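REQUEST FORM: STRUCTURE PREDICTION
Request ID: SP-0412
Submitted by: Lab K.M.
Chain count: 1
Length (residues): 471
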Amino acid sequence: MNNRNITRLAFAIVILSFVLSTIMSLLSLRIMAERNMQELSKTLASRIYDSISSELSEPVTVSRAMAHDTFLIETLKNEDSAGTEVTAEIMAEYLSAQKNAFDYEAAFVVSDESKCYYSYGGISKQMDLVSSDRDQWYSEFLSSGRDYDLDVDRDELSQDQWTVFVDARIEDEDHTLLGVCGVGARMNGNQDLFVNLENEYGVKINLVDSDGLIHVDTDESRIENEYLTGLRLSAGNDYVYQKLGNDHYAVSKYIDKMDRYLVVQSDGSAERMELLNMLLLNVVLCVVVLVIMLIAIRAIIARTRALTSVSFVDQPTQLLNRRAFEEKKAELTQTKLKENFVYITADLNGLKGVNDTLGHTAGDELIKGAADCIKACFGKYGEIYRIGGDEFAAMLLITENQYKEAMAKLDETAANWRGEIVKELSISCGHASAREFPSGNISELIKISDERMYAAKDEYYRRSGKDRRRR
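STATUS: Completed
RESULT:
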C-alpha cells in the first residue's frame, strides 16, 4: 500500500469515527437531557433566583426597617401634639436621608391619623380614600392584612422605566395602626438584568403573585394585565418543576421577602442550543484531528523515507552513513546548537592488526561489534553515523550526567564484547559539547572532538603497549 492510500485510509477511519462518535454523543446527550431535565431546570432557576433576589429584596428590607424604626413610630404618635407643619419638617429630613442613602426615587410615609402623605419634600398631599383612584392602594393594602407589599409600576415621569414600590405597615408596640411607609426604587438596572438573563439562558422570567398576576416582565404591556395560568405555585422553600409540553417546562420558586413567585419558563431552546454546540465542537475537533493527522502522517512518511533510504544507511552496521552525516552537519551549520548538544568521535583500536592476522571477515565483525556497542549506549540520545572504515560519529542531545553514564556503559559493553572470530574490542572516543564551547559551531566541535579522540587513542596504545603501526 503506497503512502497516498495510507493517508486516505487514515482519513476515512477518522471521519467515520467522528460521525459515529457524534451520533452517539448527541443521542446520549438527548437521553441525559430528558432524564435530567427537572434537575437541570431547577439549577437554572436557582442561578436566576440568586441573581435577582438581592437586586429586588433591598427595597423590601429598607421599607420594613423604616416601619420598625422607633423614631418614625414616635413621630407619628406625637403628630397630633406637634402639629402637621413640625411633623412635615421632621419627616422631610428623615425621608430625605433614606432616599439619598440608597439613591431611591421616592421615600414616603402616610399617617393613618391625619391622612397626610409625607415625602422628602414635606407634605405632598392629603390622601382621598373615597373619590381618588390613585389613593385606593392605601385601603387595598391595609385590607390585605399583609405587613408589607410590593408593586411594580411605571414611573409617571419616565414611562419607559420600571419602579418597584414597597409599602410597609407601621404599628406601635400595641399593634395599633399608625400608617404606611415605603420607598420607590427605579428598576432600570433590574430591567436590564432580566433582559440579559432571558437572552443568556433562552428563557422567560416573571415575578407573579399567588393568583398568577404578572408583576414583573420585560414586556411592560403584560405587567398587572396578564396572568400565568396552569402553574402550581407553592409557598414552600422548594423549586417546583412542571413540564408543560414536549420541550416546554416551567420552574417556580417563592421569594419570601417579596411575597412573589419567580417563574422561569423555557421552550427547550437552551437544550437544543447545547446539542448544537456539542455538534459544532465535534466538527471543530474533527477538523483539528484531521489537520494534525495530515501533518503527522507527512512528517512520519518523510522521516521514515529519510531514515530507511538505502542512500542514507550504512548496510553492514545499519547506522547512518557519511552522506547522512554531511547533510546533518550542513543543517546544523545553519542554526545555533542547543545547549545540551554533544558531538562524539569514536575510532576502533587495532582494526588493521585484526585484518592482517585474522582476515577482513574478522575486521567486519569487529566493525559491526563496535557499531552495536555505540548504538546500544548512545542511540537513544541522538543519531549515530559510520563516517569511515573504522570511524564513527554521534550527534546527541544529552546532559552531562547522561553522557558520563553512557561512556561508562560503553567502556563496560566494549570490554565484555566477544565475537565469533575476534575476542577483543576497544574503542577510543573524544567529545565536544555546546555547553563547554557555547560560541563554537559544529565544525569547531568536530575538530575538538577529533583531537580528543586521537589523544585518547595515543593513551590507549601507551597503556596497552601495543604496536601503534598495527592499529
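NOTES: Residues 310-470 form a domain with the Alpha-Beta Plaits fold (CATH 3.30.70.270).
Reviewed by: T.R.
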